[in-house]
Design goal:
The chain is mainly β and 136 residues long. The chain is 12% helix and 52% strand. A hairpin with a 2-residue loop joins strand 7 and strand 8 (114-120).
Length: 136
Amino acid sequence: MRLPLAFLLALALGGCASPLPPHDPGMAWVDMSAQTTDIFMSDHLDGKRTYDGRYFLVPPGAHELEAHYEFEVSSAGFGLFGETQTMRCTLVVQYDNFEAGKRYLFQARSLGFTPQGWLRDEQRNVLVEAEAEHCY
């Protein structure tokens, strides 16, 4: 079960080696944020696979963002030797008002076995809450 997590981590770290593209003022930029122990990567924009998992580059208007989210939880409660379990989910946000030149933040965290996510504006105000889908 560790191989997929290790593989995704290697891909995520490998992606950090390449520079981010220059910001296009005609597009909205969506940064990805999660706890350092989690994997949170862009996956689909309006049903089409994204090129780079570190961000979304979004034209103005209404769009659906899908992101792959992996996090670990202890399945044995409060014990010191509890086994951990990796949860994998898709977090989806639908937002109607992306604006050109603006930066947004797609943020994820977990509360036990429950994934949570939000799309935030530049002032970190919550614009929309993410829906968790396909968790296993």
